[in-house]
Design goal:
mainly alpha; Heme Oxygenase, Chain A; 66% helix
Amino acid sequence: MTESRILANPRADEAPPLSHAELEEQLRALGAQRYHSLHPFHRLLHGGELNRDQVRAWALNRYCYQAAIPIKDASLIARAEDRDLRRAWLQRILDHDGEGEGEGGIERWLRLTDGLDLPRSYVTSRRGALPATRFAVEAYVHFVRERSLLEAVASSLTELFSPGIISERVSGMLSNYSFISPQILSYFEKRLSQAPRDADFALDYVKRNAATRSQQQAVIDALSFKCDVLWAQLDALYFSYVEPGFVPPGAWTPGAEQA
């Protein structure tokens, strides 16, 4: 193929399956076009063009997504009959929940919100999260619970693209915000090694298990859905805290600190 194009074949069952290389090419092409690294909010965040309260709004809302990751992963494991899949996927839960108090990715995210002077009890309550944030996260959890195991695994493939955005985020935020330190951003250091490991496993799994063109299309559609989940969260942040700056009733408002 001389040009990457996202597969959109309404009669996929009648087409021969893609090779493993072609399927991966389709998935990577989708990420290049639809991953949330392209969203205007991220460009502002990484470029130092947000104020402290706008960064705080991002960290507060993103906690909802971080907290839901081990929940959706546990639901995937509960449906998996393959022991190898369960073993591999269990590591994701340990990465986020940790193996003891004060460990794991969720704890490291809370260090970020701590460093931004957001009360931890308020963050973990999720009371101040935007409605669209909560709906998008819940949609992702339900997708993993209700769709096929193949689609559930495929929805995690946004991790193929995360190392790039993480590197850009860390360097950009450290360079542009005096209130950001390496300690506050410790969550992302771990993800630079965890995300590629997880993405490699998930990519290999979908290549081996998506045997028909319709299954391959389901894999591509699952990744597309996950990109939409991530994009929708940034749409809500941009609308509420950047332009036009209308915060929905009940959501966190800059200057109105919550205990």
